[in-house]
C-alpha cells in the first residue's frame, strides 16, 4: 500500500526517521568527543604552562631539584632541541631532495623508483622508538673521536632518519606538480637535465619544498622516544655535540613524573614552548604555500 | 651553407646540406605502435613550412621528431634519417643540447617559466654561457623586440611572466626561443590556446621573422596555413591509424590545385 | 633585427654562433647525473636494511640465549639476566586493541561528518583541520595531559566499572589510576586523526553522482551512507584502520606515561600494564649488560617486524582492493 502512497508531505515510517536522527546524534557526539580531547589538551597546557612563562625560562638552566626562589628554566633544552633538529635537517634534507629528484625526474614509474617509494613509506611507518634503538646501536655503542656514549649527534641521527622519508615523499609530490611542459621548454632551449632540474624544476617547486621540509621539522621537534637513550639529557649548557644533550621533549618527560611541583611546573611551561614551536612551524609552512 | 664538420659527409650531397631540414623515410613508433610511416620532407631555409592534417595524423609527433624533444616525453623511437643543414640529427655523436639550441620550439600552450619576464628570455643564453649584464640586456631587448613584445613589457621586465595575458605569454615564449638565435623555429599549434586577436599578432610575427629564420609550424587551422606559409605539407592517416605525408608543395599549389585527391578533399572540408 | 654592437660581438665570440650540433659531449653529464641520483636513492633504500641488520646483530646474543621461548616467557629479571617478552607483547597488543575499539567508530563518524554534506563547508573544513591538529601535538605533551587530566577523569569511571562489573575478569581489580584502559584511551586519541583523515579522503573521493543516484531512489542520507558509501569505501577504511593500528603499536611516550609500567600480565584492564615501546623507553638509558641490551634489541626487532607487517598489509589492502570507485 505504502508503495503507491503519493502523499509527499507524509513523514517517513517511524523506524527510518529514528534511524536518521539516532545516527546524526551519534555522529555529532563522536565529533564532539574528538574535539573535546583536543581542546582539553590545548586548554590544560596553556592553563598550567602560561603562568610559568617568564623570560628567565629561556635564559636559565633548570634549578636543582627542591630549590625554589632561584631562576629556573630550560634554555639548554631549547638549545639542544634546535641544535639536534638543525643537524637532522642538514643531514636529511639534501639526501631527501636528491632522492625525490630521482623519483620524479629519472626513476618515475620504473621498478627501482617504485621500490624506493615503497621503502620510504615503510620507513615513515617505523616507530620512532625503533629508530632510536637503531641510532643507539650505530652511534651510542660506537666510539667516535674517542668519545663513547650518548650525544647530540646520536639524537640528531635518529631525527634525521625519521625526517628522511617525510622529506622525500613530500618533495616528490612538490616536484610532480611542476608542469611537464616547463621541462620540455627548458630542454627545447638546449638545457641539459641538470640545468632543467635545478634552474626550472627545483626553482618552481621551492615554496612547496619549503613547506614539506618545515612540516618534517615540526614533526621531529616534538619527538621524544628517539632522543631518550641517544641524546639522553643534561642539566648544563651544550659544549660539545658528542656529549649528552638536553631537549625540550625529554625534559618534559623527565619532569612529568617528578615529585617536586616546581619541576612539574617547568614541564608544563616547556610544553607551551614546544607546542608553540611545533604549531608555529606548521602554520608557517601553510602560509608559504598559501601565498601562491 | 654546408657545415664544416658534418657527421655524415657520405650522405650530405650539396643540395641536401642546403636544406634547413631534410627528412628521408622517417618511421616513428610509440613503443610497438607505429604512428608515422615513410615521411620524407624538405624544409627550405628562410621559408615558412606549414604542416596540416586531420587530428591523429601524427603532425605534432613529426615536429617533435625534428628537435628530438619527443623522446623526452615518451618512449618514442625514430627510424630513417633527418638532416639539419646536412648534419644527421640522429647520429650517435649529436649533442642534443646543441641541437635543440639550433632548432627552437614553441609549444601548443604558452609555457613560460614562473620567473620574471627578463629571466625567461635570458634563460637559454645563460644555459650556454655567462655573458655580462650589458650583453644580456641587449639580447633580451632584441629578442623581445623581434617577438613584438618589447613595447608592452619594457617597463615590467622584473614582473612575473605569469602575469601576462595568454597571447603575450606565447610571444614571450617565442622571444625566449629567439634569444638563443636558432636557425630553425618549430611551432606546434602555437595559436590553439589563443583568441583571434592574439592569433593575428602571432601570425604577423611569423611573417616578420621569416626573413632570417626557417619556420616549421603545425596548425589545425587551414586558413592560417594559407595565410602565413610558403610551403604546406599535408599529413593524413587511413584505417591503419599510421600517419603518412600525402603531399608537400608550395602553399599556393596545395590550396589552389593540389595533386592528390585526398588533399583536395581535406582542403575543401570533405573530411577531417 | 636590432642587434647592438656588444651583442653581435658576444654572438661572434661565444659558442652560440656555432652551427655544429656535434661535439662538446654533454650526454655523459646527463647520464652521470642520473647515475648519481640513482645511487643516492638506493642508499635511501639501504637505510631500512641497515636498520634491520644492525638491530638484528645487537639482538643476536639474546636470540641465541633465549630463542623462540623469549616470545612465550613472562620472566623479566635484569639482575638474574632472565628475559621474556610475553608481558610486553601482551600489553602492546591489548592496549592497541582498546585503542581501535574506541578510535575506529569515532574516526569513521568524524570522517562522515567531515566528508558528507550535513554541515556547511565552512564548518566542515576547519573541523577536519582541528581533528588532524591532534596528530601534530607531540606525544610527550599528550602524555603529560594524560597524567594530570585523563587519569583523574577516568578514575571514577574505572572505579564504577569495577564496582558494577567486578565479576567480569576484565574489570576484576581495583585501579590505582594508571592502567591498560587509560593507555588504550590515550592511544585512541592519538590514532584518531590517522583513521579520520584517511577515511575522509576515501569517502570524499566517492563520486557524488552515485550519492545522488542513491538518494534519488528515496534513500535518506544515512541509508545512503550505510548501503552505498561505507561498503564502497570499505577497503580504504580498512587500510586507514590498519595504519592506525601500526601507529598504536609503536607509540611510546604517551603510553609509557599512563600505563603504570608493571611487569605482570593481568587479565584486568584496570590494572597497570606495560608495552614494548614503554619498556624500551624505561630501560635503554640504563642498560649496561650485553644480554640486557640484547634482550631490549630483541624486543625492538619484534616491534620492528610487527609494525612492518602491519603497514605492508595496510598498503596492500589499499593497493589491491584500491579505492573501488576510482
Q: Write down the CATH topology of chain B.
A: Rossmann fold
Distance between the termini of chain B: 39 Å
> Outline of chain C, from the CA principal axes?
flat
Largest contact between chains: A-C, 84 and 80 residues
What's the CATH superfamily of chain C, by name? MetI-like
Tell me the radius of gyration of chain C: 28 Å
Strand-pairing-aware structural class of chain B: alpha/beta
Largest sheet of chain B: 6 strands, mixed
Count of beta strands of chain B: 10
Protein architecture, described:
- The complex is a heterotrimer of chains A (292), B (272) and C (326).
- Chain A is built from eleven helices and two strands; from the N terminus they run αααααββαααααα.
- Chain A has 292 residues and is mainly alpha-helical.
- Chain A has one domain (75-290): MetI-like (MetI-like fold, Orthogonal Bundle).
- In chain A, a hairpin with a 2-residue loop joins strand 1 (143-144) and strand 2 (147-148).
- The radius of gyration of chain A is 25 Å and the shape is flat.
- The model of chain A has no long low-confidence stretch (mean pLDDT 89).
- With 272 residues, chain B is an alpha/beta fold.
- Chain B has a single domain (14-267), classed as P-loop containing nucleotide triphosphate hydrolases (Rossmann fold, 3-Layer(aba) Sandwich), CATH 3.40.50.300.
- Chain B is globular.
- The model of chain B is unreliable at 1-14 (pLDDT under 50).
- By secondary structure, chain C is an all-alpha fold.
- Chain C has helices at 5-13, 27-66, 86-115, 121-136, 139-165, 180-204, 208-216, 221-250, 253-258, 276-283, 290-321; strands at 76-77, 82-83.
- Chain C has a two-stranded antiparallel sheet with strand order 1-2.
- In chain C, strand 1 (76-77) and strand 2 form a beta hairpin.
- In chain C, helix 8 (221-250) runs antiparallel to helix 11.
- The radius of gyration of chain C is 28 Å and the shape is flat.
- Residues 13-17 of chain C have low confidence and may be disordered.
- Chains in contact: A-B, A-C, B-C.
- Chains A and B meet through helix 7 and helix 8 of A and helix 4, helix 5 and helix 8 of B.
Amino acid at each position: 500500500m505504502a508503495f503507491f502512497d503519493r502523499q509527499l508531505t507524509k513523514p517517513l515510517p517511524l523506524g527510518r526517521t529514528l534511524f536518521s536522527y539516532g545516527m546524526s546524534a551519534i555522529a555529532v557526539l563522536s565529533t564532539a568527543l574528538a574535539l573535546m580531547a583536543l581542546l582539553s589538551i590545548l586548554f590544560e597546557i596553556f592553563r598550567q604552562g602560561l603562568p610559568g612563562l617568564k623570560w628567565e625560562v629561556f635564559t636559565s638552566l633548570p634549578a636543582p631539584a627542591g630549590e625554589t626562589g632561584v631562576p629556573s628554566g630550560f634554555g639548554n633544552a631549547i638549545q639542544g632541541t634546535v641544535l639536534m633538529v638543525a643537524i637532522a635537517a642538514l643531514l636529511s634534507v639534501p639526501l631527501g631532495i636528491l632522492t625525490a629528484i630521482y623519483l620524479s625526474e629519472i626513476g618515475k614509474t620504473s621498478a627501482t623508483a617504485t621500490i624506493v617509494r615503497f621503502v620510504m613509506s615503510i620507513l615513515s611507518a617505523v616507530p620512532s622508538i625503533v629508530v632510536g634503538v637503531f641510532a643507539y646501536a650505530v652511534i651510542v655503542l660506537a666510539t667516535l673521536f674517542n668519545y663513547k656514549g650518548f650525544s647530540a649527534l646520536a639524537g640528531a641521527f635518529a631525527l634525521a632518519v625519521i625526517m628522511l622519508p617525510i622529506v622525500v615523499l613530500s618533495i616528490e609530490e612538490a616536484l610532480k606538480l611542476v608542469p611537464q611542459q616547463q621541462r620540455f621548454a627548458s630542454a627545447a632551449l638546449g638545457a641539459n637535465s641538470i640545468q632543467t632540474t635545478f634552474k626550472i624544476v627545483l626553482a618552481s617547486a621551492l615554496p612547496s619544498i619549503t613547506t614539506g621540509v618545515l612540516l618534517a621539522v615540526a614533526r621531529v621537534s616534538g619527538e621524544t622516544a628517539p632522543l631518550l637513550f641517544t641524546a639522553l639529557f643534561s642539566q648544563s649548557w651544550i659544549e660539545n655535540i658528542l656529549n649528552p644533550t638536553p631537549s625540550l621533549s625529554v625534559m618534559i618527560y623527565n619532569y612529568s613524573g617528578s615529585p617536586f611541583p616546581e619541576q612539574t611546573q617547568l614541564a608544563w611551561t616547556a610544553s607551551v614552548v614546544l607546542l608553540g614551536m611545533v604549531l608555529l612551524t606548521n602554520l608557517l609552512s601553510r602560509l608559504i604555500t598559501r601565498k601562491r | 651553407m654546408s657545415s664544416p664538420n658534418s657527421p655524415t659527409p657520405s650522405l650530405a650531397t650539396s643540395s641536401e646540406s642546403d636544406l634547413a631540414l631534410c627528412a628521408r623515410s622517417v618511421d616513428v613508433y610509440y613503443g610497438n605502435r607505429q604512428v608515422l610511416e615513410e615521411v620524407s620532407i624538405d624544409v627550405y631555409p628562410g621559408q615558412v613550412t606549414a604542416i596540416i592534417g586531420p587530428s591523429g595524423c601524427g603532425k605534432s609527433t613529426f615536429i617533435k621528431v625534428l628537435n628530438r624533444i619527443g623522446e623526452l616525453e615518451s618512449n618514442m623511437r625514430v627510424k630513417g634519417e633527418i638532416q639539419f643543414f646536412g648534419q644527421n640529427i640522429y647520429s650517435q655523436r649529436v649533442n642534443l643540447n646543441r641541437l635543440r639550441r639550433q632548432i627552437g620550439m614553441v609549444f601548443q600552450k604558452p609555457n613560460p617559466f614562473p620567473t620574471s619576464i627578463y629571466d625567461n628570455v635570458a634563460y637559454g643564453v645563460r644555459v650556454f654561457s655567462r655573458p655580462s649584464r650589458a650583453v644580456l640586456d641587449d639580447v633580451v631587448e632584441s629578442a623581445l623586440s623581434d617577438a613584438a613584445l618589447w613595447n608592452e613589457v619594457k617597463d615590467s621586465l622584473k614582473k612575473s611572466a605569469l602575469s601576462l595575458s595568454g597571447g603575450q605569454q606565447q610571444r614571450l615564449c617565442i622571444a625566449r626561443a629567439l634569444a638563443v638565435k636558432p636557425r630553425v623555429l618549430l611551432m606546434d599549434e602555437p595559436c590553439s590556446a589563443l583568441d583571434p586577436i592574439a592569433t593575428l599578432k602571432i601570425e604577423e610575427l611569423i611573417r616578420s621573422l621569416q626573413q632570417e629564420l626557417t619556420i616549421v609550424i603545425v596548425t589545425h587551422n587551414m586558413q592560417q596555413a594559407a595565410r602565413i606559409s610558403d610551403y604546406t605539407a599535408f599529413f593524413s592517416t587511413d584505417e591503419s591509424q599510421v600517419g603518412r605525408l600525402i603531399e608537400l608543395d608550395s602553399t599556393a599549389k596545395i590550396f589552389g590545385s593540389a595533386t592528390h585527391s585526398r588533399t583536395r578533399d581535406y582542403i575543401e572540408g570533405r573530411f577531417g | 633585427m636590432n642587434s647592438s654592437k656588444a651583442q653581435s660581438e658576444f654572438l661572434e665570440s661565444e659558442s652560440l654562433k656555432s652551427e655544429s650540433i656535434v661535439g662538446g659531449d654533454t650526454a655523459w653529464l646527463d647520464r652521470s647525473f642520473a647515475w648519481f641520483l640513482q645511487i643516492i636513492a638506493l642508499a635511501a633504500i639501504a637505510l631500512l636494511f641497515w636498520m634491520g641488520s644492525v638491530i638484528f646483530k645487537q639482538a643476536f646474543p639474546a636470540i641465541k640465549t633465549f630463542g623462540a621461548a623469549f616470545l612465550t616467557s613472562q620472566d623479566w629479571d635484569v639482575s638474574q639476566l632472565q628475559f621474556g617478552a610475553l608481558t610486553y607483547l601482551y600489553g602492546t597488543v591489548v592496549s592497541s586493541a582498546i585503542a581501535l575499539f574506541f578510535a575506529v567508530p569515532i574516526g569513521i563518524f568524524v570522517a562522515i561528518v567531515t566528508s558528507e554534506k550535513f554541515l556547511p563547508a565552512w564548518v566542515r573544513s576547519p573541523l577536519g583541520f582541528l581533528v588532524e591538529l591532534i596528530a601534530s601535538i607531540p606525544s610527550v605533551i599528550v602524555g603529560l595531559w594524560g597524567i594530570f587530566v585523563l587519569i583523574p577523569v577516568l578514575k571514577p569511571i574505572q572505579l564504577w566499572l569495577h564496582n558494577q562489573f567486578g565479576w567480569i575478569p576484565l574489570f576484576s581489580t581495583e585501579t590505582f589510576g594508571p592502567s591498560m584502559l587509560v593507555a588504550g584511551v590515550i592511544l585512541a586519541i592519538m590514532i584518531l586523526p590517522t583513521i579520520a583523515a584517511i577515511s575522509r579522503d576515501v569517502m570524499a573521493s566517492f563520486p557524488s553522482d552515485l550519492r545522488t543516484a542513491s538518494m534519488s531512489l528515496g534513500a535518506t542520507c544515512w541509508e545512503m551512507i550505510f548501503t552505498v558509501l561505507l561498503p564502497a569505501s570499505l577497503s580504504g577504511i580498512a587500510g586507514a584502520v590498519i595504519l592506525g593500528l601500526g601507529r598504536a603499536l609503536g607509540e611510546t611516550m604517551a603510553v609509557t606515561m599512563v600505563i603504570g609500567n608493571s611487569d605482570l600480565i593481568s587479565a584486568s584492564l584496570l590494572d597497570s600494564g606495560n608495552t614494548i615501546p614503554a619498556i624500551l623507553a624505561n630501560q635503554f638509558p640504563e642498560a649496561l649488560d650485553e644480554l640486557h641490551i640484547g634482550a631490549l634489541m630483541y624486543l625492538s626487532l619484534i616491534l620492528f617486524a610487527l609494525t612492518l607487517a602491519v603497514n605492508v598489509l595496510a598498503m596492500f589492502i589499499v593497493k589491491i582492493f584500491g579505492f573501488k570507485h576510482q
